[in-house]
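Residues pack. One example:


***
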Amino acid sequence: MERQASVKVPDGKLVSVRATVDDRFQDVQIRGDFFLEPPEALADLEAAVEETRRHAPGGPRRRVRRRRRPVHRVHGR
């Protein structure tokens, strides 16, 4: 089942996530009013969420936090 969620974070940036969600997250797309550096950071975040079990303890948030590559900066547009 395809799901989508959007949130406007406190500093005014809009972040949207779209994914196919059954037992696991698949085809994750993160979009919004921001830039990430290094350029591959967005793909890394999407990959960290993909294949996470929907009801896993900590879920996708835990997998994202375990990623080794830091996101150096986030810029609003």
